[in-house]
Amino acid sequence: MIVLVVLVALVALVALAVSARAKAQATLVALDCPCPGGDYYIITIIPAGKGAGAAMQTGVTGVFYHPLFSRESWPVMRDKFRHFPAAMEELLDLPQVKLIQPQEVPMGLLQKVHTDELLYGMQGKWYYRGALLSVGGCVEACEKVYAGELANAFVFDVAAGHHAGPAHAWGGTYISCSGPAVINLRQKFGPLKVAIIDTDCHHGDGTRGVFRGDSLTLHSCFCSHSDSEEEGTKFCVPVGWRCTDEEYLQMIREHFIPAAEKFQPQLIIHLLGHDTCRGDYGDRGLSTAFFPAAVRELKELAWRLCEGRLVVVTMGGARADLTSIIVPASIRVLAES
Ligand SMILES: [Zn+2]
Ligand SMILES: [Zn+2]
How far is CA 217 from CA 95, 179, 232, in A? Predict the structure, then answer.
């Protein structure tokens, strides 16, 4: 009897795997223990999205990428995406990975974050379109992940990001990514709680400015500062100028993870700068293996806290050779089961 039931379970698992490939659809299968008084197993099938529980990966990983990102040499980040999309070709063949070409972010969303003067100053800048597409990707990724259309997402970003505050922007990032994304989420789904972790080398002054006074957003920035504001919902962790991969991961576990567990976000955004990698312009001694390891840590956290809702957005880093290792490895972690 046991053999028969196990065989049935295996057939069901194979069928589900095939079905998941065909539909690129989320499914979790749990085999419970033998029931008391009976020698059979219960197979529980839980659909994706709400109620998916503590599984690792269900469904599709969205990769938001525009060919324009590979054609230019951007301010600060330069031509680090020049090997893409070829560098992630193998991943794009996976049934659970979906390439999505982003649209420009609507101006109305930008106007809710930035002053008219800042936006006016962007008109005519050659990198403006790249920034608009990057933020558009971030907005769409957060919306689709929150709505359950995607399990998680990886967003390519140029000329936009964490140094863009409401009225001032610098450092290669000229409009905000997470600001418009969070505003869009709240317009569509209500007052959601979002946790942002920034592991770029430099302080995310722009992001901090955008979310100042917003108690529904946790902003945790790993940099050289050590401040804590607004009852701990805005804080920085001083990483130190040299650290090992394990030391940095331990800092994430000691500082961000407990804060997020207390905060209980409904979505996590990871601003993944890899300027901290050995040989890049913000070198803090990290290896290329650190970045997918950090994504794995955050993916597990997202499953514990918010049904796996994690959006990873690239930030600083300028070396194309490092980018071609770190980005595909991070996407692979998001897509793996
Ligand atoms: Zn940086
Ligand atoms: Zn900081």
Answer: 33, 10, 11
Q: What is the DSSP letter of 81?
A: T
User: What's the gap in Å between 205 CA and the centre of ligand 2?
Assistant: 7
- Tell me which residues have their CB within 5 A of the ion that is ligand 1: 200-202, 273, 275, 282, 316
67 DSSP assignment: T
- For the cut 70, the answer to whether the pLDDT of residue 38 exceeds it is no
Query: pTM for this structure?
Result: 0.84
Name the burial class of residue 327, with classes exposed (0-12), middle (13-18) and buried (19+) by CB atoms within 10 angstroms of its CB. Answer: buried
pLDDT > 60? residue 5 = no
The pairing of strands 61-64 and 27-31 is: unpaired
Strands 152-155 and 27-31: unpaired
* Smallest-distance ligand from the CA of 280: 1
Ligand nearest to the CA of 201: 1
Residue 312 has which token pair?
Answer: 């990873």
pLDDT at 34 over 90: no
Beta strands 310-314 and 97-100: pairing type? unpaired
Domains annotated for the chain, with CATH where assigned, are: 2-47 (no CATH), 61-335 (3.40.800.20)
pLDDT for 25 beyond 70: no
Q: Please state, in angstroms and rounded to a whole number, the distance separating the CA atoms of residues 193 and 197.
A: 13
250 token code pair:
């331990």
Confidence band (pLDDT; 50, 70, 90) for 51? very low
Average pLDDT rounded to a whole number, residues 19-46: 31
Question: Which ligand is the nearest neighbour of the Cα of 77?
Answer: 1
Q: Are 326 and 290 in contact (CB under 8 A)?
A: no
- 88-114 average pLDDT score: 98
Backbone angles phi, psi at 227, to 5 degrees: -90, 160
Per the listing, tokens 């000229």 go with 174
pLDDT per position as a tens digit, 249-290: 999 999 999 999 999 999 999 999 999 999 999 999 999 999
Phi-psi region of 38 (alpha: psi -120 to 50; beta: other; left: phi over 0): beta
